[in-house]
Here is the input.
Amino acid sequence: MTRSSQPPAPAGQVSECSLRLVDADKVEQVRSRMPEEADVADLAVVFGLLSDPGRVRILIALLEGEMCVCDLAATTGLSESGVSHALRLLRGPRVVTVRRAGRMAYYSLADSHVRMLLDLGLTHVGHTGRDRLQMAAGR
Amino acid sequence: MTRSSQPPAPAGQVSECSLRLVDADKVEQVRSRMPEEADVADLAVVFGLLSDPGRVRILIALLEGEMCVCDLAATTGLSESGVSHALRLLRGPRVVTVRRAGRMAYYSLADSHVRMLLDLGLTHVGHTGRDRLQMAAGR
DNA sequence: AGAATATCTGTAGAGTTGTTCACACGTTAA
DNA sequence: TTAACGTGTGAACAACTCTACAGATATTCT
Here is the structure.
């Protein structure tokens, strides 16, 4: 998921060695608007976290509010260890946050952007009609 | 707090063997709203396509309009073969479409949802400022 | 026709990811 | 205290992904 590909050549010069161009102006224009390499990498990391069905189910579950690990496991069909591993990945970039109470750990979505990404993605995938997640997205 | 106590699975077949539950009602509620497995899988595939920096650069470039393979290569820093491989992956789920003119192939974004996903993601990484994502830092 | 061009595809190998298992850690109950 | 519990972690391994290279295909030029 996170495999850093070769960063674009230093800005300014479009034409490197033996690279063919058809529309040099367009290339230059697009390159000038291209975000920084680090931003692109971060974006890819976030999307990569959403690229596993198990993690997606976890995050969709969390759309409805906080949940503990064992309930997430029951909800998603993953093992508890699997849920824990997944939540660790999601905790790193602060996609989810944890609230601890005794030996329980309650997880919730940390950031509304992920909520929107999930909602948009579900719409894209053809999950049309029916309320589903809309209501939960308000919080 | 709700002890697990595990009563004989209240009616709705929340889960089967030996899974501990803390809040069975919540689990049942969330499970009833969980999208179909196929939709979740498709969603993960789409996000997976956005999880590679090279492909993200290609798609960001296409935000400005259609481009041919060699200009995409020059723009993104990928090899032309690499761009072609990436575009093949994106063509499958109709994320991009191709218009052929002679021996040229002009690609463009096929679907406005991907455009929105990219925009949302970009404003997200832009707004989080230099709060760089730290993958391993969570722990 | 042959050569050059633009794109596409197959393949191998290096690297990465997800899952499972076994156990460790901190908390609560007995 | 000991035992049970909920969760976290590390290691191992299969499965997958990306990249580079070679070559294929299709189109255009001379």
